[in-house]
Structure formats: C-alpha cells, structure tokens
Write a structure and sequence with these properties.
8 helices; 16% strand; globular
Length: 238
C-alpha cells in the first residue's frame, strides 16, 4: 500500500516540477515559433519515472513493425491505470489519445493535453462524441498518432472485453493503419479497484499494422473483430 501512495507523490512532483515548466514552454514555442511536439520527450521521461515508481519493469517488443514517419491508431487492451503512460512513453512514437472530458477540468491537464494532441471525449453526449471522432481524424491526417482503449474500462482478470466502434470509425475516416497493441500483467502491478502497487514485470507488444484497405464504416465490424482477435490471442488471463 505504501508504494501505491508513493506513486501519487511521485505523480504530483512530476506534474509540478516537470509538467508545469514544459507546458509553459511548450505553449510559448507553439505560439511564437510553431513548434508542436516539444512536450513529448520530457513527458515520456516523466511517465517512465512514474512507471518505475509503481514498480513496473517494462518489456517492449514489436517496435520493428512500425514506421517512425507513419501515423497510426494504436488499439490496446486495458488492464490498469498504468496502460496510458506505458503506451505514451514506450511506443517510439509521439502518441496522443482520447481522454474523458472530465480530465480537461483539471488545470494542469487542461493546459497540457492540447500540446500532446489529446482529444476530449464526452461519452454522455453522442453529438459531442461524434465531433471528437472527427477531431481525432483531423489529428491523424496531420500526421499525429493516437492511442485508444476500446474496451472502455479496465479488465481485472485480463480477459479482453468487447470493443467499442469509435476509434475504428476514426481510423477508417482518416485512412490511417491500426496497430494492435498487447498489454500483459499491468493489472498485477496496479489492479483496478485496489489501492496498492506490487512490483513486477509488465509487457507491451506491438503487432504488425493492419491495413484499412477494403474497410468502410459498413463493414467496420469485421475490422473490429479482426483487431480484437489478434489482441485477445496474445493476452494472458488469470
């Protein structure tokens, strides 16, 4: 339990001593010099420190499948609060994301998310959710990768739940390949519903990109099933 609360302290210190300065500098560089991605290197460093504080020993594989100059939609299974920082800091790309609109009400997050191409999602409003998907497609067309956890919630036992459609529709609209990402054992380090962090090995595996050739919104269900099956086949369950 002490380690869990230690991660909260570390997260706070990182936000204050790394987050605030780089967000401030990032906005200045973007406004006056057109520099967009200044925030990513220090943010990745900070999130790696956070993962280490939680006791996560990270193992990464499959990055050889990825083209560093190609934008992707990274679709991953979801086991723990450690998953977003894991993908953000270890995929070898500058990866934005979708985030609950409630997070944009937190002052530091509100200022920092736009610099990291994080798109707000209001799940309680279908029209606003559709606008978020269009905004995400625009980010992809501009060459910014995004990650999504289409299960919508964390899995306690590792079993992959059904996938929601939004991220897949967005990828189809933008014509950007999907990379299935397999996460294993983050739930053992920081499990949903438990206020504790247990040191252990966690695994991130990027599978070969899935081309969207031949897929439209009409047959998106086939694409969703294909990606989910690829991930589920490599996820370890209790």
């Amino acid at each position: 339990m002490l380690r869990y609360y230690w991660t909260l302290v570390v997260a706070f210190l990182l936000l204050v001593f790394i987050g605030v300065p780089i967000i401030t500098i990032g906005h200045i560089l973007r406004k006056f010099f057109g520099v967009e991605d200044f925030i990513f290197p220090p943010a990745k460093f900070g999130l790696r420190v956070y993962l280490r504080a939680a006791g996560a020993r990270v193992h990464v594989s499959g990055l050889e499948h990825l083209d560093r100059d190609q934008a992707y939609v990274f679709i991953a299974n979801h086991q723990s609060n450690l998953d977003p920082p894991l993908l953000f800091s270890y995929l070898g790309h500058n990866v934005g994301a979708f985030a609950k609109i409630e997070l944009f009400r937190i002052p530091i997050m509100k200022q920092g998310f736009p610099l990291a191409h994080v798109v707000p999602v209001d799940r309680g409003n279908r029209e606003r959710a559709a606008r978020s998907a269009r905004r995400g497609a625009d980010e992809l067309r501009r060459g910014h990768s995004l990650m999504a956890f289409p299960e919508g919630t964390r899995s306690v036992d590792g079993r992959v739940k059904e996938f929601k459609k939004g991220a897949f529709y967005m990828a189809i609209e933008a014509g950007v390949p999907i990379v299935p990402v397999v996460i294993n054992d983050t739930r053992l380090v920081m499990r949903k519903g438990e206020k504790r962090a247990v040191p252990g090995d966690v695994y991130l595996e990027a599978l070969p990109p899935v081309s969207l050739e031949g897929y439209t919104t009409e047959n998106a269900g086939e694409l969703i099933k294909r990606v989910r099956d690829l991930i589920a086949a490599r996820v370890w369950t209790d």
